[in-house]
Amino acid sequence: MKKLLIAGLLLLSVVFATNKAGAQTKIGYINLGLLVQQLPETKAVQDKINAYSKQFLDQLTTMNTDFQVKVKDYDAHKSTMTDASRTATEGQLSDMQKRMQEYSNNSQQQVEAKSNELAKPLFDKVKAAVTQVAKEKGYSYVINSSAAQGNELLLVSPPGDDLTADVKTKLGIK
User: Fold this and answer.
1) Which of 34, 115, 150, 160 would give a disulfide with 27, using CB separation of 3.0 to 4.6 Å?
2) pLDDT (average), residues 91-118
3) For the chain, which domains are there?
């Protein structure tokens, strides 16, 4: 009986110690996307991404113009073409269309990679400021409220504090 009482007291002390440690956890949240968007450097990064993207768009426009000219020429002359010539021209048009689609997909991937490369320093800067504010204010966890792209990240959670204003101040954003 004495062992059972000691085990019970030991279990209660562990539970109370766990609850006390859990009570010290502070949870806050920020909107990381909004903070990055409001940085002064974001406009320069967006301009670089737009200029990079325009190169691909210009090339794709040229390819499309050439394709449209060849389609019109084909439509105008297909009634007088031999079967072999018509089949060869249709194959060339099909190949052009495939190349345009591949170029479009490749260019989208390259623009996305460049965008991620240029935006990384901005996100790193904001994350560093978030880390500093969390440390200064004693937060154990900070949740990104924009992570679900407009949807709530957590449906049920303990209340937290919005640290967005404090991080904006740390970054010098008004």
Assistant:
1) 160
2) 96
3) 25-171 (3.30.910.20)
